[in-house]
Amino acid sequence: MTNIEYTPIASAKLENGASFHRTERIFDLIKLDDPAIAVMTDLKKVSALTIAEKAPIDAANARMKHRGVRLLLVVNDDDTVVGLITSTDLHGAKPIQHIQKHGGTYHDITVQDIMTPQDKLEVICMEDINRTRVGNIVATLKQAGRSHALVVDRHERENKQVIRGIISASQIARQLDIEIPTTEIAKTFAEIEALLASA
Known about the structure:
This protein has helices spanning 57-67, 87-91, 94-102, 111-114, 126-131, 134-144, 169-175, 185-198; strands at 40-42, 50-52, 71-75, 81-86, 116-117, 123-125, 148-154, 161-168. The chain is of the alpha/beta class. A 4-stranded mixed beta sheet has the order 1-8-7-6. Strands 2-3-4-5 form a 4-stranded mixed beta sheet. Keywords: CBS domain. This is CBS domain-containing protein. Residues 40-101, 115-182 form the CBS domain.
């Protein structure tokens, strides 16, 4: 073994006003015939973003903005998923309807007041994701009139459903390299269908 002498690296002072790099989400471009898993955010690889059901919706909005997402899983004290909340829930008609029905102000509303509860959520099985194509996912979201889908598999020992992934229409559009000037679902799918027709 040779004796190598390593010299120290020169250091400097951190400058005033320095910032830091933030992780960029880089999506691979895809085609409609690619495997469906190409558009799924895999929660085995990326941490799920959650919020407590009793949190104020201001906190949900801040978390979405900070993390650059449009959906949070809503959990109870045991970390069981009790629903989900989207940016559409926060900025659409739900808060106004809640105030009209129950009184109070926007700042009084909690996540559980306007979330989509667990018993209203439809999911896709991971087995189906593994054997279908991106085009099947687009058709599924369009039929359901939704901008997101949850993907589940089963806990090996307890045989309970576990949310394995999240699929987003806006992410699919980005991966198809389609510009979406609005977050409206209908517009998203009109853009995706236009790509289908030109293919």
